Amino acid sequence: MVHSSTSSDITVIFLSLKMAAVHAVRVLVGLCHSVALQPRFGLIPVQLASTCLLRRLCSINAKRTESKLPVCPENESLLENLNLMGVDVKMARQRQPGVLRKAFTNEQGLFQFLQSKGASRKVIAGIISRYPRAVTRSIEHLEQRWGLWRKIFKTDSEIVTIIDRSPESFFRSSDNENLEKNIAFLSSLELNTKDLHRLLTTAPRTFSNSLQLNKRMVEFLEDVCAELGGKNPEQFPKAVISKNLYILIRSTKRVRKNIDTLRSSLKLSDSELLALLEGHGANILDLSNEYLQRNFNSLRQKMTSLGCRKADIKQLILSCPSVLYTGQDTLCIKLDCLIKGGITMKQIVEKPKVLDYSTQNITERLEKLQTIGYDFQKNGINVLDSSKKRFLAKMEKLSVSPDDSM
DNA sequence: AGGACCGGGATCTGCCATACTT
DNA sequence: AAGTATGGCAGATCCCGGTCCT
C-alpha cells in the first residue's frame, strides 16, 4: 500500500516536471497538423506560449514532414508520459495506433482524475494500455461521465472496479448526452434500482450503446411478446432483461434466430414459447446461434441414443433450459457420468437440475454416496442437487446411522 | 425436522468491421 | 485518408439457500 501510493506520487511529480520539460518538443512534433486542432481542451497558457514560440520552427518541420512522410509520426512526449505511467505502449500501439500520433492528449489529466477516484497506478496503466483512446478525453468530459455513472453506483471504487475490468465500456463513447438518455430510458423500463445496478455492473457496454440500439432491442422484445399472444408486451422486455443482463449487448438478429431455433427444434406452441422466454429460457437467448443449435442437436442425439423420446427431450429442456448453455462435450460427459453412477435417464429427465452441477462435483458426490451404498432407485437423486453444506450434512448423517436415514 | 422446489447470483471481454467525421 | 464512434461477434456454468411441503 505504502509502496504503491509512493510510486504514484513519484509518478505525478515526474509527470508534472516532465510535462513542462517535454512540452516544447511535443508542440513541435504535434503542431504540424493544426494549431487550433483541439478546441475541446482549450489551450492552457503554457501551451499558448509554446505555440507562439514554436510556430516558425513547426512550419519548417511541417513542410518537411508532409513532403517526405505522409504518415504523421508518433507523439514522442505522449510516449514518454505513457512509459512513465507504466503503460504497455506496445499493446496500446497495437490497439489504437492513431491515438499515439495525436498532437494533444490528456494523459496527465486522466491519470490524476482516475487517481483521485482511487485507482492505483497499476490499474490506470492497465486501463490506458487496453483502451488508449481514454487519453483523449477531457477533464470536463470525464467528470460529467463519472457523475452519470455515479447515478447508478454508490461509490467511486465500484466504478473503478468496472473500468479496470472493462475500460472500453467506460471510454468507448464520447457521447455523454446519449449515456444520460440511456439511463433515463432503461429506468423507464421499470427496471428497479437493483436491476439497473446489476445491469451496469454486469454488462456495462449496454450504457455505451446508442439509445437507438437499446430501444430497438426493447421494441423487438415487445414485438416478440405480442406476436406470441402475450398480454402485456411492455412488461416482457423487463422480464427478459432482468433474467439475462447480456441481452442488450446482443444483436436482435442473434436473439431472433435463437428464438426461432428453440421454437422449431422443440416444436413449441406460441404459449409454450412465451412461457419459456419469460422464464429461464431468457438465459440462453444470447448464446451464439451456432452454439445453441449445435448443443441442441448434440443433446437430442445423445438422449435418443439413450432411449429417450422427443417428449422427454422437450420436457427436459423446458424445465431446465440452461442445459443448452453447456457445451456438447461437457454435457455428454456429464450424462455418461450420471448413468455410470447408477442413475437412469428417466430420473434425469424428471430432475434435470442435477445437470447444473459440474461434472467434478457430480463425480465426487457419486463416489461418496457409493461408498455408503446409497440407493438412487429407492431414494431419488435430489441429494445431488443441494449446496455443499447441505450435502455434507446429509453425508454426515448417513454415515452415522445409515439405516435410519435410508 | 428434513427434504423438495425453485429462483437468484456470480459472471462477460477484447477484438474486428464498418460507417461516419473531419 | 486518418481517426473516431459504434455494432457485432465468439467464448461457454455452477452453486447457494429461502421457503414451502410433509
UniProtKB/TrEMBL annotation:
Where do transmembrane segments lie in this chain? Answer: none
Under InterPro entries, the record lists: MTERF, MTERF_sf
Gene Ontology biological process terms from the UniProt entry: termination of mitochondrial transcription
What are the record keywords, sorted? DNA-binding, Mitochondrion, Phosphoprotein, Repeat, Transcription, Transcription regulation, Transcription termination, Transit peptide
Gene Ontology terms, MF aspect: DNA binding
Subcellular localization: Mitochondrion
Q: Which Gene3D superfamilies match?
A: Transcription termination factor 3, mitochondrial
Keyword Transmembrane appears in the UniProt entry = no
Assigned GO CC terms: mitochondrial matrix
Which PANTHER family did the record assign? TRANSCRIPTION TERMINATION FACTOR 1, MITOCHONDRIAL, TRANSCRIPTION TERMINATION FACTOR, MITOCHONDRIAL
Q: Subunit info?
A: Monomer.
Q: Could you say which protein family the record assigns here?
A: Belongs to the mTERF family.
What is the protein's known function? Transcription termination factor. Binds to a 28 bp region within the tRNA(Leu(uur)) gene at a position immediately adjacent to and downstream of the 16S rRNA gene; this region comprises a tridecamer sequence critical for directing accurate termination. Binds DNA along the major grove and promotes DNA bending and partial unwinding. Promotes base flipping. Transcription termination activity appears to be polarized with highest specificity for transcripts initiated on the light strand.
What name does this protein carry? Transcription termination factor 1, mitochondrial Mitochondrial transcription termination factor 1
